[in-house]
Specification:
By secondary structure, this protein is mainly alpha-helical. Helices cover 75% and strands 2% of the residues. It has twelve helices and two strands. Helix 2 runs antiparallel to helix 11 and helix 3 runs parallel beside helix 5. The protein is globular. The N and C termini lie far apart (44 Å).
């Protein structure tokens, strides 16, 4: 009993549950900006190395909307969704559809070059200084059931969860999603059935861009914005997608929530320095036992 008592004290403390709720909300945002990456892979077997920089541009969109118009997330989120979706379609038609004809190395170098172009373009346009949005942009924090919630993080977590589930429903429960999945399974057979593969692939890039833009605009409310922030976010996205299973939006949701929870609990129970170590150890263990990811196809 003496051994279990400290454990029970931790598990029943308000601080512990505060960390759990915060980790789940953070994980929902991880899932949102990772779902676009897994959608592109599942649709076209292309790893978009510019994905983190798409998120970065979504963050800058929120900063510009606030600076120029004084608009909060209700203005910046739809604008970022439209802007990054448009960028996704442009990237597909000007770059991706051409490099698809080449070897995998061309796809890697092509999207990596796109990432550098976007990163240094943002550096030229916005400078290297960090930019942040006001803490009370969504409202002040509030207390519920003895737990304190920050308005920005609650909004980001809730919208991240809703948009990710909506994206999953679009892919699995609509005719458009069926056509997109048909193209991903067999492009030639889909074309014989009257489906236009390039139109579906462009739509996939638009959906991935929209979800990424929404995630970026939400993250900007509580995280710094800089031209290099995409590098950090890209690593999180790749780990989330690989852990959940490439091509599975639902897997990205489960993995994102798991990573957010593990990060928060590790920082709380062990120390902030160890949180990334614990996440990557878990990541390696899962892929060792299940290489296709938690919900990937065998």
């Amino acid at each position: 009993m003496s051994i279990l008592q400290p454990v029970l004290q931790v598990l029943t403390s308000a601080a512990f549950w505060q960390v759990v709720v915060g980790g789940l909300m953070l994980g929902a945002v991880y899932a949102l900006f990772s779902s676009g990456l897994t959608l592109i892979w599942g649709m076209m077997n292309v790893v978009n190395f510019a994905h983190g920089d798409f998120v970065m541009l979504g963050m800058y969109t929120a900063v510009v909307v606030w600076t120029a118009l004084g608009g909060g997330p209700w203005a910046s989120v739809p604008i970022a969704a439209i802007a990054i979706a448009t960028l996704g379609v442009i990237s597909y038609f000007l770059l991706v559809r051409h490099i698809l004809r080449g070897p995998m190395l061309a796809q890697i170098l092509g999207t990596f070059g796109l990432a550098l172009f976007l990163r240094y373009g943002a550096l030229w346009a916005f400078g290297a200084n960090f930019k942040t949005l006001p803490d009370d942009l969504v409202g002040h924090s509030f207390v519920l059931a003895g737990l304190r919630f920050e308005g920005a993080r609650v909004l980001a977590g809730t919208m991240g969860l809703v948009v990710t589930i909506l994206l999953h429903v679009i892919l699995t429960r609509t005719s458009v999603g069926s056509r997109m999945l048909a193209v991903s399974e067999d492009e030639t057979a889909a074309q014989l059935m009257g489906i236009r593969p390039q139109r579906m692939q462009a739509l996939a890039w638009a959906l991935a861009g929209a979800s990424t833009g929404i995630a970026g605009a939400l993250i900007a409310m509580f995280f710094y914005t800089s031209p290099t922030v995409g590098e950090t976010l890209a690593i999180v996205a790749f780990v989330t997608v690989a852990l959940g299973g490439f091509g599975s939006v639902l897997g990205a949701l489960v993995a994102g929530m798991l990573i957010g929870l593990v990060e928060s609990l590790s920082a709380f129970l062990i120390g902030p320095v160890w949180k990334d170590v614990i996440v990557y150890v878990l990541f390696v263990l899962v892929l060792w036992l299940r290489p296709q990811g938690l919900m990937g196809k065998t």
